């Protein structure tokens, strides 16, 4: 069964940038003291360059394949970041690191990774941790983020949500918020004490991972939440490069791009058909009515 086949390519590159930027002095400390009560509003595209320059005093880390922009916050002055995406803009609390990435200068910021706490305090009671999870998912749902299946992945019916979560570590029904007892069971039985979501809204993909990092002797818990935003345009064009005879989609003519896209769509449908057949053999039900975003509007 195909599972997150491509999105982690971006994450690995982001982590490389994180290691490099982590060695640099924190240019954000002065900013934190004066702006800690204000949300940091970040856009994708060329506007994103201006946003990071405004907040980060223009610091940039350039590499042959990408450029990185970083914001860092130190306790107790953790940041609040608003990812601007129209009606689906999302406010993220308790932020301690933001990494913006651009692979193509003309497209501006194409990816934003955020590390944050689940709660304001580093160590919290189990009930406080659960409430932090509830508050997060309420904001995500209110902003209109929907479950996303890659075109080549099987479209598992949301009624099989718990089984899929147990086997793959991913929730496929973000509208369903676990009860307190379910939350404790999910955290304690999942691989690595973590689980995640893959979502989309208005041209962006969002991967969310919630991980329990530590439990103290007195029962306090520590959590890390990782958010990875990518433009659908970048993600789709990056996937197309694997099936376009190594021709960069950004160098294609409009007709070449359309043909390459149609070829990729056909390949993905064939792959999905095989994986869904396998999933059915394993007892999963398929959501035949699932409709994802029209990705071509972002690719072209």
Radius of gyration: 20 Å
Give me the number of helical elements.
9
Number of domains: 1
Number of strands: 12
Name the beta content range: 15-25%
The biggest beta sheet reads: 12 strands, mixed
User: So what's the overall shape?
Assistant: flat
| Low-pLDDT sequence parts | 1-36
Average pLDDT number: 87
SSE arrangement, N to C: HHEHEEEEEEHEHEHEEEHHH
- The helix fraction, in percent, is 25-40%
Our measurement of the CA-to-CA distance between the termini, rounded to an integer number of angstroms, reads: 29 Å
Which structural class do you get from the secondary structure elements?
alpha+beta
Question: Could you explain the architecture of this structure?
Answer:
Helices cover 36% and strands 24% of the residues. The protein is of the alpha+beta class and 300 residues long. Strands 1, 2, 3, 4, 5, 6, 7, 8, 9, 10, 11 and 12 form a 12-stranded mixed sheet that branches. It is flat and about 60 Å long. The relative contact order is 0.14. The chain contains 9 helices and 12 strands.
């Amino acid at each position: 069964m195909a599972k997150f086949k491509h999105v982690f390519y971006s994450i690995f590159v982001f982590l490389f940038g994180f290691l490099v930027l982590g060695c640099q002095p924190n240019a954000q400390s002065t900013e934190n003291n004066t702006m800690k009560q204000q949300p940091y509003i970040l856009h994708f595209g060329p506007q994103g360059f201006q946003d990071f320059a405004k907040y980060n005093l223009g610091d940039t880390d350039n590499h042959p394949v990408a450029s990185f922009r970083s914001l860092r916050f130190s306790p107790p002055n953790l940041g609040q970041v608003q990812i601007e995406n129209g009606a689906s803009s999302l406010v993220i609390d308790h932020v301690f690191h933001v990494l913006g990435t651009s692979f193509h200068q003309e497209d501006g910021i194409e990816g934003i990774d955020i590390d944050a706490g689940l709660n304001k305090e580093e160590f919290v009671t189990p009930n406080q941790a659960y409430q932090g999870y509830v508050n997060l998912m309420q904001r995500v749902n209110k902003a209109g983020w929907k479950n996303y299946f890659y075109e080549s992945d099987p479209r598992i019916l949301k009624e099989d949500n718990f089984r899929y979560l147990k086997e793959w570590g991913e929730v496929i029904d973000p509208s369903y918020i676990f009860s307190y007892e379910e939350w404790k069971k999910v955290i304690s039985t999942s691989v690595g004490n973590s689980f995640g979501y893959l979502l989309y809204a208005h041209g962006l993909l969002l991967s969310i991972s919630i991980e329990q990092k530590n439990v103290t002797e007195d029962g306090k818990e520590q959590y890390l939440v990782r958010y990875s935003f990518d433009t659908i345009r970048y993600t789709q064009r990056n996937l197309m490069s694997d099936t376009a005879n190594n021709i960069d989609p950004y160098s294609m003519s409009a007709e070449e791009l359309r043909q390459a896209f149609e070829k990729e769509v056909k390949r993905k449908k064939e792959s999905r058909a095989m994986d869904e057949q396998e999933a059915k053999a394993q007892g999963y039900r398929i959501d035949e009515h699932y409709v994802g975003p029209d990705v071509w509007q972002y690719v072209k």
